[in-house]
């Protein structure tokens, strides 16, 4: 049996490309033309959703089945249905974001997490990570909604590093080098910043994905940029020729409102006769012919009823780095020992769910800025009602910002600075990330700033496994953060860079100083020593929400690969 993983080139991940062998790409698995002659199965009543998509009516004559309507699935459905002769059916476990007006307001992004649009998954506890989280389990938000995780996302528009793409190609994945994928970035992009758009080699204004500069910038963000310039960092477009440097954020925001990938790509496709959606449809497993050589259909649960459909044509699995292995494992495609332990008949022994990589990062290092002036997004001082009023009536104010107002790609002492292949990403927050009550309570009503520091290419590898055969049971997420001590040391070094920035004249002018309350659990260690930072990281570092790698792409001789470079 062969099958295809399709990786969509919107961007590898918001924290840049993550790994040397498989990066933050959307994961989509396509089972190639295994269909049998189609039997029409009517499982719904034709109607249109609020945004005009045609609802699932019948699978008769469908050429492409897409399982998972997140970032990857939305783009595929949109692009495949551009050909009027191709009938596309998209099955999505969640509902439609247009039902939630909050989804429009950039600053309220985090309210969507832990809502019905979120699978609300958590990682399994480990000894050396997520120690300050409830039951030592880190939150792993994932979109369960049309648009998938892009509907919950922070809207940051960044691309992967050229070298990551080139490395994929060098590893035998033909067609994945940067020059080959760049045209797809351009095809997707609608950059509303005319200065950036003028650089036609790297930007375009012709695509569906609007990218713009948020209308609001906190004065503290300008201090951050000035501090970078003072230290000799480049201020540049990090999505162009070079990545190392600092940039005011560009976001997937259109006319001041959040733009999920579903809105961007399925919006223009709404009303097409050849594109049908079936929402609230949880794909449970693939069905095979008796010889187990062909996929002939799918089982799914819709509104509490288990349905099965015979499928003809392409079957595309685009359920994300957690959902995709979930479907494959339940279908009998995965590590034989794990499937046997779960009493699932093995269809194909493959390393599905292995090679899990996630961006680990920390947002808790906070600096006080008592002399900062002007209002600030992401601050307790913001008068929420006034800001919402300003947003609704004028499309202005701090509600137009996600709270992350600048990003930077920087080299730790472990990176080769001559290479333009930075190993850290910073996200600047002109406020605080108030998670632990005891620790953060003294910070309330104080002016402050923080940097989320993210490790871009972790060496640690985790795994996704089934908890049980039950399709509704949570999956087991074993991230194994900091299994490689180098991952920890790179992040330790990131504090040195943050502290250096905080000591520039730009930050001195706002009275910047580090918040000095020792983090609970690390009180015994000398404050801001390397050992303190190691402890701080093991307690407070968190997923930065970019899991990848669980259906790895690679050539035939790569025993860790699940699919080839054509994603089959
Ligand atoms: C909180 C958060 C913030 C983020 N911020 C940013 C950002 O600012 N910038 C950025 O570039 N990236 C960001 N990301 C990452 C980005 O959203 C993901 O990399 C991207 O959405 C992955 O695309 P995907 O299609 O692989 O998966 P997803 O977008 O997660 O889509 C998978 C879809 O499959 C569906 N699904 C899963 N299982 C099944 C099943 N069994 N049956 C049917 N449907 C199923 C899900 O409901 C979901 O809709 C963020 C992610 C999160 C969670």
From TrEMBL:
Keyword Transmembrane helix: no
UniProt keywords, alphabetically: FAD, Flavoprotein
InterPro entries to which the protein is assigned, alphabetical: FAD/NAD-bd_sf, GMC_OxRdtase, GMC_OxRdtase_N, GMC_OxRtase_C
Glucose-methanol-choline oxidoreductase N-terminal domain segment(s): 320-334
Positions of FAD binding: 145, 283
Cofactor(s) annotated in UniProt: FAD
PROSITE patterns: GMC_OXRED_2
Annotated stretches, region: Disordered: 547-568
One Pfam family in the UniProt entry: GMC_oxred_N
Listed SUPFAM superfamilies: FAD-linked reductases, C-terminal domain, FAD/NAD(P)-binding domain
Entry annotated with the keyword Nucleus: no
Entry GO MF terms: flavin adenine dinucleotide binding; oxidoreductase activity, acting on CH-OH group of donors
Family to which this protein belongs: Belongs to the GMC oxidoreductase family.
Protein's name according to its UniProt entry: Glucose-methanol-choline oxidoreductase N-terminal domain-containing protein
Organism: Notodromas monacha
């Amino acid at each position: 049996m062969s099958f295809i993983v399709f990786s969509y080139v919107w961007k590898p991940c918001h924290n840049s490309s993550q790994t040397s062998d498989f990066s933050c790409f959307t994961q989509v698995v396509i089972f190639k033309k295994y269909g049998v002659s189609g039997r029409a199965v009517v499982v719904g009543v034709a109607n249109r959703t609020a945004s005009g998509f045609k609802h699932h009516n019948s699978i008769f004559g469908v050429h492409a089945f897409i399982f998972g309507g997140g970032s990857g699935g939305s783009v595929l459905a949109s692009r495949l249905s551009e050909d009027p002769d191709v009938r596309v059916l998209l099955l999505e476990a969640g509902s439609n974001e247009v039902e939630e007006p909050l989804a429009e307001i950039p600053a309220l992004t985090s309210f969507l997490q832990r809502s019905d649009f979120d699978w609300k998954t958590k990682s399994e506890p480990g000894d050396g990570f997520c120690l300050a989280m409830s039951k030592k389990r880190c939150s792993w938000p994932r979109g369960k909604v049309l648009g998938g995780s892009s509907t919950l996302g922070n809207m940051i528009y960044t691309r992967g590093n050229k070298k990551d793409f080139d490395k994929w190609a060098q590893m035998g994945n033909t067609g994945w080098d940067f020059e080959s994928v760049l045209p797809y970035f351009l095809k997707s992009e609608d950059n509303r910043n005319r200065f950036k758009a003028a650089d036609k080699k790297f930007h375009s204004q012709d695509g569906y994905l609007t990218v713009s500069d948020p209308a609001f910038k906190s004065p503290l963000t300008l201090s951050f940029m000035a501090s970078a310039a003072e230290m000799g960092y480049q201020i540049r477009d990090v999505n162009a020729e070079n990545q190392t440097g600092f940039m005011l954020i560009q976001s997937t925001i259109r006319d001041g409102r959040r733009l999920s990938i579903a809105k961007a790509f399925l919006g223009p496709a709404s009303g097409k006769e050849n594109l049908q959606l079936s929402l609230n449809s949880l794909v449970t497993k693939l069905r095979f012919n008796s010889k187990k050589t062909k996929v002939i259909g799918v089982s799914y649960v819709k509104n509490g009823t288990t349905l099965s459909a015979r499928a003809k044509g392409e079957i595309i699995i685009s359920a994300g780095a957690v959902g995709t292995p979930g479907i494959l494992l339940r279908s009998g495609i995965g590590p034989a020992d794990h499937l046997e332990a779960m009493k699932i008949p093995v269809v194909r022994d493959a390393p599905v769910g292995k090679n899990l990589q996630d961006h680990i990062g920390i947002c808790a290092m906070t600096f006080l800025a008592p002399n900062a002036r002007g209002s600030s997004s992401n601050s307790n001082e913001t008068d929420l009602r006034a800001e919402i009023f300003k947003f609704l009536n004028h499309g202005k104010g701090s509600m137009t910002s996600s709270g992350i107002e600048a990003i930077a790609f920087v080299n730790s002492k472990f990176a080769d600075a001559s290479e333009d292949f930075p190993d850290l990403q910073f996200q600047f927050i002109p406020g605080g990330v108030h998670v632990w009550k005891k620790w953060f309570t003294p910070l309330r009503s104080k002016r402050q700033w923080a940097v989320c520091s993210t490790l871009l290419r972790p060496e640690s590898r985790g795994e996704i496994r089934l908890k049980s055969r039950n399709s509704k049971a949570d999956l087991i997420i074993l991230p194994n953060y900091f299994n490689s001590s180098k991952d920890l040391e790179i992040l330790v070094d990131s504090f040195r860079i943050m502290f250096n920035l905080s000591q520039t004249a730009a930050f001195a002018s706002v009275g910047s100083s580090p918040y000095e309350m020792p983090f609970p659990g690390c009180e015994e260690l000398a404050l801001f020593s390397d050992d303190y930072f190691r402890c701080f990281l093991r307690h407070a570092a968190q997923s930065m929400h970019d899991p990848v790698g669980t259906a790895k792409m690679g050539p035939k001789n790569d025993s860790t690969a699940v699919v080839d470079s054509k994603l089959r």
